[in-house]
Amino acid sequence: MIQPTVYQKKLEGKSNAHLITFSDGKDYVVKYFQPGFEKSLPNEWVAYCLARYLGLPIPYAQLVEIPQDFSSQVPELAQMGHTNFQFASLYVPDCVDAHQVSNVSKIINHQSLAGIILFDYWLCNGDRTRKNILLHEENLNSYQLWVIDHAEIFGSYNWLQHDLEMLPIGILKSATHKLMALFIEDEKQFTEQLELIQTMPILLIEEIVALIPDDWGVSMEEKKGMVTTLLSRRKNILPKLVQKVIQSVYRPLHQNQG
Ligand SMILES: Nc1ncnc2c1ncn2[C@@H]1O[C@H](COP(=O)(O)OP(=O)(O)OP(=O)(O)O)[C@@H](O)[C@H]1O
Ligand SMILES: [Mg+2]
Questions:
Q1: Rounded to an integer, what distance in angstroms lies between the CA atom of residue 109 and that of residue 124?
Q2: Contact between 84 and 213 (Cβ < 8 Å)
Q3: Which fold is adopted by the domain 106-257?
Q4: Which pLDDT tens digit goes with each residue over 82-95?
Q5: Quick one: which atom of ligand 1 is closest to the CA of 157?
Q6: How many beta carbons lie within 10 A of that of residue 248, not counting itself?
Q7: Collapsing DSSP states into helix, strand and coil, what is residue 50?
Q8: Which of 127, 241, 248, 110 is nearest to 178 (CA)?
Q9: The model's pTM
């Protein structure tokens, strides 16, 4: 397992994410377990693994152990929680977020955009704000898009078991989804992505949830609830939502293009 070598800085945002260099020579954005945000790290982990299966552009991530003697030397880390594992996401340098661009003429990985939108609906991610995509300019006004920050899937960073039964089933208000939908070239991509989500092996979903570190405090019932929610949303809710997204998000943006 990679070891932390140099503390770089605290990143902006409510998660208190920290930029740390590791023994592989790379920088990672590390999120610690925080009281009041008990589901942030389990959410990040599950979202990351599901996104990887779906082939979505999410920065490479892993569970890491930051030894106590490393954290205690950094005032910003000394105050963080002391779980064995933290969530580390490979830092993608030289990106801007969607607030910081005025002219996007092309998204290079546009084939992933329908998948990202359905992923957010499947996992009930209400936090796809303009800050939670990263854009890397490859050519003038032409960007590679990455998704980050899945601390608020299942509706929030501190959901409880019964919240899972009451997750929203309607259209999410997201300017970022609209921005992404502009660059989707064919509405068939939504149904293709639905198929991919619906055929993901149940065993794999169960394994991903089972791998949540014990010291993040997710109970067996809550883990079961996560799996059940994923299975029932993909079967019962997502097909209807796909039609709604096509009708109320995708088509209004594309109807004048003939
Ligand atoms: N893999 C990454 N590569 C580059 N920058 C990143 C990465 N992950 C996070 N960041 C930067 O760190 C900031 C905080 O990360 P993130 O959005 O995951 O957590 P947050 O604190 O919950 O944010 P928010 O305030 O949106 O809730 C991001 O806005 C982004 O600028
Ligand atoms: Mg964020």
A1: 23
A2: yes
A3: 1.10.1070
A4: 899 999 999 999 99
A5: 22
A6: 11
A7: helix
A8: 248
A9: 0.97
